[in-house]
Each structure stands twice: as structure tokens, then as C-alpha cells.
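User: Can you recover a sequence for this backbone? Please restate the input before giving your answer.

Assistant: Of course. Working from this structure:
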């Protein structure tokens, strides 16, 4: 699509091919039951497109933060069952391997028919091999597929084996519809926003990465490049949630903040805290 500068699922031929799709099935759970399936719903356009084109669709995702190896409460079994309900009568098979990729998974993939779906187990069951972008795990995931599709926008900032490492070992890669939509929306919002417009930044992991001057989202949002009379894209950028800890970490500020996870705040050099104000 013009302006996206990315290969999308509309640009690739998947008929009869094994397509590994990184989705975001990190859904909220309570007592083993999904309490909100919005993230599964959001992945449906890409999944249905690939199925309708005759692809053999292999889905992988993380769920939560397993800290003690594989745990049943973090299994993607419930997500696979919900997906099966949403795409019926398409065949959906969940392969419960704590290794995510092993001989049982490879056999299941080899037995797939065009237009069928397999859901792999939680990629974080591989621990640091996933989160530290381990080459061996990346190769194992890539060995399952002819094509890789990235459609987990909420995890795209993480250089994990299932989001980044795998792309080194699959020849054909593309973005799905959810990634496409988010990239286009963010690009339009930053480059040519309809004013008045306010960028509100929050969240924990992604924002902390982007506050780092090595990946400077905040300076980009406030950049003085605009064809409109207003000299800045976003003269004021409110922060909310755990992101406030980054602001309060500056010794120049006098404010209190709490922590839900006990992680310390950090001060990133290059962020002008002196021009930030605390309201609360």
C-alpha cells in the first residue's frame, strides 16, 4: 500500500505455503477464563485473509510473564479454543508443547492442509531464548514456515526471537492488517495531525524504551517540523500511568509516585526534564 513502505499480506502469495504469524494473544485471564478477547478479535482479519488464500497458518504469541518455566495458567490453550469458536468451521489445532517447537509440533505442521490453523504454545515458555532473541529458538520457529507475518503491534518494539530473530531465517516476511493499520495511524498522527490534537503517552515497557534517547519517540513527537503555523507537532505531551515514574525519577522534580511492580524508575540522559511539569 502506498505510503506504508512495507510488504503486507496483500502483496504475498500464500497458497499451499506454511505461514508463521506472530499475533498478540496476550489476553487477560481469570481462573483460566479469558475475560476480554479483543486482541484475538483484532487478529482475525489477517488470519482469515491467509486462510482464505489457502495458507497453512501457524500462530505464535506470548501470554503473561512466566517466571518459573512453563506454567498451565500461561498456556495459550484457552486462546486457541476461543479462536476456534471465532473462525468456525476452519480447523484450529492447539499443539501443547512446553518447548514450543519440537517433533510433535513439526509433525502437526507437516500434516496441515491448506486453510488450516495451528496455535503454538506460549513463546515465553522458552524463557530467555525468547526474550533475549536467542538464535537457536529463532531458527526453530523459522524452520516451521515459508513465510513470516508480523501482526503483533503491541510486541513490535521488543527484539524477541518470535518478533525479530525469526525474520533473519525466513526469506519472505510481511506485516498483517493490524500492523498496517497502526503504522498508518501513527504515521498520519505524527506527520499531519488534525488539530487540536494531544498525544498522551502511558504504559510501562514500550514507553520506557522510547524515552531512551537511542530510540527517541518523545523528541520526535515534539519535533519542530510542521507546515502548519503551530511550531510543534505536540507542544504538550501528557504522561500517565507507570510512565510518570520516569518523570519523577528526575532529582529536579518534587513529586511522589507509586509502583505496581516494584521496578525502579530510571533517568534517561537527553530527556529535558526541566521543561516537564507535574500535575496531580
Amino acid at each position: 500500500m502506498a505510503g506504508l513502505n512495507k510488504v503486507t499480506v496483500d502483496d504475498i502469495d500464500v497458497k499451499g505455503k506454511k505461514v508463521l504469524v506472530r499475533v498478540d494473544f496476550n489476553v487477560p485471564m481469570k481462573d483460566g477464563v479469558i475475560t476480554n478477547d479483543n486482541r484475538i478479535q483484532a487478529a482475525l482479519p489477517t488470519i482469515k485473509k491467509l486462510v482464505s488464500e489457502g495458507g497453512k497458518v501457524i500462530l505464535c504469541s506470548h501470554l503473561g510473564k512466566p517466571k518459573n518455566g512453563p506454567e498451565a495458567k500461561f498456556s495459550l490453550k484457552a486462546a486457541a479454543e476461543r479462536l476456534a469458536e471465532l473462525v468456525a468451521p476452519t480447523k484450529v489445532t492447539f499443539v501443547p508443547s512446553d518447548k514450543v517447537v519440537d517433533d510433535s509440533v513439526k509433525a502437526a505442521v507437516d500434516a496441515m492442509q491448506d486453510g488450516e490453523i495451528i496455535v503454538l504454545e506460549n513463546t515465553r515458555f522458552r524463557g530467555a531464548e525468547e526474550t533475549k532473541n536467542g538464535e537457536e529458538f529463532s531458527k526453530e520457529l523459522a524452520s516451521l514456515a515459508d513465510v513470516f507475518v508480523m501482526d503483533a503491534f503491541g510486541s513490535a518494539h521488543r527484539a524477541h526471537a518470535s518478533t525479530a530473530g525469526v525474520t533473519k531465517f525466513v526469506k519472505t516476511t510481511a506485516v498483517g492488517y493490524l500492523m498496517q493499520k497502526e503504522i498508518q495511524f501513527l504515521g498520519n498522527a505524527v506527520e499531519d495531525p488534525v488539530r487540536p490534537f494531544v498525544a498522551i503517552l502511558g504504559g510501562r515497557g514500550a514507553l520506557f524504551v522510547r524515552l531512551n534517547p537511542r530510540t527517541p519517540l518523545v523528541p520526535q513527537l515534539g519535533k519542530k517540523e510542521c507546515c502548519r503555523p503551530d511550531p510543534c507537532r505536540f507542544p504538550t505531551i501528557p504522561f500517565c500511568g507507570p510512565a510518570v515514574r520516569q518523570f519523577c525519577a528526575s532529582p529536579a522534580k518534587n513529586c511522589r509516585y507509586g509502583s505496581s511492580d516494584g521496578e525502579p524508575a530510571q533517568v534517561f540522559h537527553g530527556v529535558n526534564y526541566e521543561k516537564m511539569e507535574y500535575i496531580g
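That completes the design. The longest helix spans residues 38-52.
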